[in-house]
Amino acid sequence: MPGLERTSHISLTTQVENGLKHQLTIGALKPGARLITKNIAHDLGISITPVREALLRLVSASALAVAPAQAFMVPDISLARWEEINHVRTELEGMAVAAAAETISAERLQTLTTLLEQYQQAHESGTIQERLLANHTFRFEIYRYANMPTLYQMIEQLWVRMGPSLHFLYGNGVPDGYQSRVAYYHRLLDALAQGDKEECRQCLNDIIAKNVTLIRTQYLN
Question: Which of 170, 158, 90, 97 has the alpha carbon at shortest distance from 130?
Fold first, then answer.
């Protein structure tokens, strides 16, 4: 039935788009990475059309750029644009952690404690991909507790744009600030447990500022 085929097609395109967004968000795709439409379709075992539509959606969202030979590319972001994104992130993510402090429970704190332990383990023995994924999982679990879907989506969109640059935290011999982030995350959990919204905001601001300092050195080198 044509209607069902169209619905299935839209769903498949959205699935591909969401999968690519996730890869961008967790930094699995580096700036400059090329995405070949036919290769993605082959790997997923689907036709080229939904893959191309998904990629074009991400181009419209400025998350990807069109490249020659039916390819797409993860764009490099200028330092000015990158700092603008992080300025907006600071405001939105600060709002999210403050809202999460109002809904926190013993069960949620235990979940976050477990995720933080997984984050520490990933840094001690995991790959870069595992580290980035563990960091993303921990942070977005907190944002989910804010119970503000629109805010969550806005933060997610910003991470799609800046996620690839997270690779700079681990490359070229630059220290990734892991120990300081663990300390900040423990401080953030304490603030959440106390329902201290302003301390939550400040801690989140300090975390982002630390990463901005580390990554800025890569842009300037």
Answer: 170
The angle formed by the CA atoms of residues 110, 112 and 115, to the nearest 5 degrees, is: 110
CA distances from 199 to 100, 122, 156, 193, 202 (A): 12, 27, 23, 11, 5
- Which of 83, 97, 73, 217 is closest to 162 using CA atoms? 83
Reported pTM: 0.85
DSSP state letters, the chain = -HHHHHHHHHHHHHHHHHHHHHHHHTT-S-TT-EEEHHHHHHHHTS-HHHHHHHHHHHHHTTSSEEETTTEEE-----HHHHHHHHHHHHHHHHHHHHHHHTT--HHHHHHHHHHHHHHHHHHHHS-HHHHHHHHHHHHHHHHHTT--HHHHHHHHHHHHHHGGGGGGGTSTT----HHHHHHHHHHHHHHHHHT-HHHHHHHHHHHHHHHHHHHHHHHH-
Taking only the tens of pLDDT, the chain with its 221 residues reads 343 344 455 689 999 999 999 999 988 888 889 999 999 999 999 999 999 999 999 999 889 999 887 789 999 888 888 889 999 999 999 999 999 999 999 999 999 999 999 999 988 888 888 888 999 999 999 999 999 999 999 999 999 998 888 776 655 444 455 667 788 999 999 999 999 999 999 999 998 888 777 777 766 56
Burial grade of 60 (CB within 10 A; 0-12, 13-18, 19 or more): exposed
